[in-house]
Amino acid sequence: MQELRIHGRGGQGAVLASAILADALVEEGRHVMAIPAFGFERRGAPVVAFLRFDDRPIRRATNIYTPSLVVVIDPTVGRSVDVFAGTPAGTTVVQATGKKPEELALPSHLGRVAVCDAVHIALDVFRRPITNTIMLGAFAKATGLVSVESLVKALEHTDFRDAGLRQNIEAVQRGFDETVVRQLDGVAAA
Questions:
Q1: d(CA 122, CA 36)
Q2: Directed axis angle between helix 132-143 and helix 162-177, to 10°?
Q3: Model confidence, pTM
Q4: Which CATH number does 2-183 carry?
Q5: Antiparallel, parallel or unpaired: β 180-183 and 112-116
Q6: Is 90 left (phi over 0), alpha (psi -120 to 50) or beta?
Q7: What are the pLDDT digits (tens) for 7-52?
Q8: For strand 69-72 and strand 2-9, is the pairing parallel, antiparallel, or unpaired?
Q9: Of 168, 158, 169, 138, residue with least CA distance to 73
Q10: Quick check: 84 and 105 in contact, CB under 8 A?
Q11: Minimal CA–CA distance to 95: which of 5, 187, 15, 188?
Q12: Dist. CA 150–CA 137, nearest whole Å
């Protein structure tokens, strides 16, 4: 079973990203449990969403405390919250940042890091710093756990209108294409 935590800020679509990813994973025949977490629910406040998925039915309905997959859709949220909290050895972190993997301050137990200059892509595609669908493409490249095709099908199930749908499909593809993945010295994730 895989457990994922998505970090972002209110208004950036972290919960929507979780729902789109859940739909894409179901498209691929996986069993999924999405667990959104709402706090103050105000724009700009740190937000977190969780996802659990497996090839078999999921019976565990607890909160997720030790995710081996972490997606950070906002490059500044790590200043407010510990995005690495509870992560076991071998964790994969997918980070929105303009930095290279070797420029990041990372815990030694991580197994893999992927970076994507999602804000730059978002400003190019949407003219706003909304990075959620870009980071889904980055997640697909970093992990191989979901395909771009399934993410596109999931986007088609959302309420995006024609232009918005095209932009989000482009965002997912660019997130996939422009993500840099590095294997680290930590124990490889199971």
A1: 23
A2: 40
A3: 0.92
A4: 3.40.920.10
A5: antiparallel
A6: left
A7: 998 888 898 999 999 999 999 999 999 887 655 566 778 889 999 9
A8: parallel
A9: 138
A10: no
A11: 5
A12: 11
Return d(Cα 168, Cα 44) in angstroms, integer: 21
- What is the rounded CA–CA span in Å between residue 11 and residue 43? 5
- Tokens describing residue 181: 């993945």
11, two tokens = 């208004």
Extract the tokens encoding 183: 């294997």
Cβ pair 61, 33 in contact under 8 A: yes
DSSP 128-159: S---HHHHHHHHHHHH-SS-HHHHHHHHHTSS
Give residue limits of the domains in the chain: 2-183
190 residues of the chain, pLDDT tens digit each: 999 999 998 888 898 999 999 999 999 999 999 887 655 566 778 889 999 999 999 988 888 999 999 999 999 999 999 999 999 999 999 999 999 999 999 999 999 999 999 999 999 999 999 999 999 999 999 999 999 999 999 999 887 777 799 999 999 999 999 999 999 975 554 4
Least Cα distance to 14 among 53, 32, 33, 41 occurs for: 41
**Whole-number Å distance between alpha carbons of 47 and 76:** 12
Residues with Cβ within 8 Å of 108's Cβ and at least 6 positions away in sequence, in order, are 185, 186
